Structure to design on (239 residues):
């Protein structure tokens, strides 16, 4: 495996990709198997001395890069759901809208031992077949460059440790209104400071109007509405 090869040659951090075919049995096929192409991605980096958990931080970083990749090729409404994929210690399902297009996660120890890998990488499997189906069905359009400036707000929330970040993200997108153009999770923090059963999630919000220049008062009101909804739906409090 390429990851093991590079690791043995003292590479401290690298990214790999590969496109290959997966064959599944199919009675409808003349050959007895059905071929579908997948894109494999791998992020490798040795743990660093840091106050945050390395693997959690690494997985969140990779999630962001996956979203950027998928959006750059025309897919939208990217989301993640907790998965139970075989061979993973921790895994997430990747969706574009309601269609699952792949998985991402941390490999389990058996897989690491099988391929003789010492440091646990983050790996992603994307179905090019499912992605192509979405491309073929998409409606292309054009939006002119925004005429009015955007405004950004960061919010840090304390929430129960077992609460998925995706649940809060969904609430923010729902309550943000028409002027909320983008929201992303940029930090996850767990320590005694927030309590043994809690964690801190930090989100970046981008507001922009297509018809006027937003004021601080308008954006602050939208943020307050979002915070109230997060507290009511998830028990989240602002830090």
């Amino acid at each position: 495996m390429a990851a093991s090869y590079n690791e043995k040659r003292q590479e401290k951090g690298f990214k790999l990709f590969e496109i290959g075919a997966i064959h599944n049995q199919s009675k409808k096929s003349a050959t007895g198997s059905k071929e579908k192409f997948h894109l494999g991605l791998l992020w490798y980096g040795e743990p660093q001395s840091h106050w945050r958990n390395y693997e959690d931080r690494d997985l969140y970083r990779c999630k962001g890069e996956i979203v950027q990749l998928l959006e750059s090729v025309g897919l939208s409404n990217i989301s993640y759901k907790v998965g139970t994929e075989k061979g993973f210690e921790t895994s997430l399902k990747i969706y574009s809208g309601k269609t699952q297009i792949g998985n991402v996660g941390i490999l389990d120890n058996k897989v690491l031992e099988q391929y003789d890998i010492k440091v646990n990488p983050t790996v992603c499997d994307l179905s090019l077949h499912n992605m192509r189906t979405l491309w073929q069905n998409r409606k292309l359009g054009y939006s002119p460059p925004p005429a009015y400036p955007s405004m950004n707000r960061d919010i840090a929330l304390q929430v129960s440790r077992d609460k998925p970040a995706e649940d809060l993200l969904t609430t923010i997108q729902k309550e943000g209104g028409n002027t909320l153009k983008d929201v992303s999770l940029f930090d996850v923090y767990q320590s005694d400071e927030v309590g043994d059963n809690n964690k801190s999630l930090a989100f970046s919000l981008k507001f922009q109007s297509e018809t006027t220049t937003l004021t601080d008062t308008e954006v602050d009101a939208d943020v307050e509405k979002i915070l109230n909804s997060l507290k009511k739906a998830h028990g989240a409090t602002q830090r």
User: Anything to note?
Assistant: Residues 38 and 127 are 5 Å apart (CA to CA). Confidence is low (pLDDT under 50) at residues 48-57.
